[in-house]
Amino acid sequence: MKINPYIFRGYDLRGIVDKDLNPEIVEHLGKAYGTFLIKRGIKKAAVGYDCRLSSESYSEAIIRGLLATGVDVIDIGLALAGNVYWAQYYFKAPGCVLTSGSHNPANYNGFKFGTGFSATMVADEIQELRQIAEKGEFNQGEGELEKKDIKEEYFNDLIKRFSVPFNFKVVVDPSHSTPGAFVPELLKKAGCQVICNNCELDGTFPIGTPDPTEKKIAERLVKKILEEKADLGFSYDSDGDRLGAVDDKGNILWNDILVALFAADALERNPGTKIVFNTLCSKVVQDAIRLKRGQAVMWRTGHSFIKAKAQQEKAVFAGELSGHFYFLDKFYPHDDGCYSTLALLSYLSRTKKTLSQAVADLP
């Protein structure tokens, strides 16, 4: 089968719907990934998908491919990246697949493939997957399929990890993407008053691509926060592993500010330990780490690279300018926008500061 080599990226697969990807190609990729897993002795995978129009059918194709190679599948349905990674632990499934185009336009889709608990493919593993797909010699077997709804268990686990009240008025703007089906419900369950802005799911992304680094999305948050006199607001990408934030005064925060805040907080708990961050972060991150006498480790951009480096260095926290955050001393070692949201609210609750005050206190 001819597959456009362009879809095999640095740490995931991405392509144009109906041009680079269709159900037949995706099932072929599912067989390649199943063979990749079986070679490593992995026989179970958690699978989910985002709200793009093509995602459910592509996820079904991935599942057919996995089952045909003898891999057992837990299908959790509509999901965020954090749901899928969390499901790995809940179901003891070292493999995972998320069908999502992340922050790409609606006519794109893609896949994040797991290589172990909280671990996703890096460049050499992506190329190995490509070689398996191009060769077309797949393992054969009969995997078993289970469908599970884990939303309630996932929410309960996240909330119980924090022991502070969440008495905040929060604006949530996921740009009609998948977090709209999760974040407002989670925050309400945690005790927040939630103002939803563009939370209804629409896989065509009618107001633009969901990307928390986009200025126009942040400006929408600013307007709503000031109108509602909210404490802060959050935006997300379509698979919910990244976030953006605006403070109580309507200031748009670069995510390296949040990296600095989270790093300083982690070092309060773990003096002298390591913090990993990517090369795009500004000096504010290193200054915050040095002030708390931590060890700063700068590394290459990309969620798979940062995640792997953080575990290699035994870091207590890692973060990227793009809005990926990893709380390795308190949570599983993967990026989860829902957990990151609660972590920031918890920090503000514990310190009794507004977000604008917390930022002003950074070095």
TrEMBL record:
Residues 7-139, 153-250, 256-362 form the Alpha-D-phosphohexomutase alpha/beta/alpha domain. Its cofactor is Mg(2+). PANTHER family: PHOSPHOMANNOMUTASE, PHOSPHOMANNOMUTASE_PHOSPHOGLUCOMUTASE. Keywords: Isomerase, Magnesium, Metal-binding, Phosphoprotein. Belongs to the phosphohexose mutase family. This is Phosphomannomutase. It comes from Candidatus Wolfebacteria bacterium CG_4_9_14_0_8_um_filter_39_46. GO terms for molecular function: intramolecular phosphotransferase activity; metal ion binding. GO terms for biological process: carbohydrate metabolic process. InterPro entries: A-D-PHexomutase_a/b/a-I, A-D-PHexomutase_a/b/a-I/II/III, A-D-PHexomutase_a/b/a-II, A-D-PHexomutase_a/b/a-III, Alpha-D-phosphohexomutase_SF.
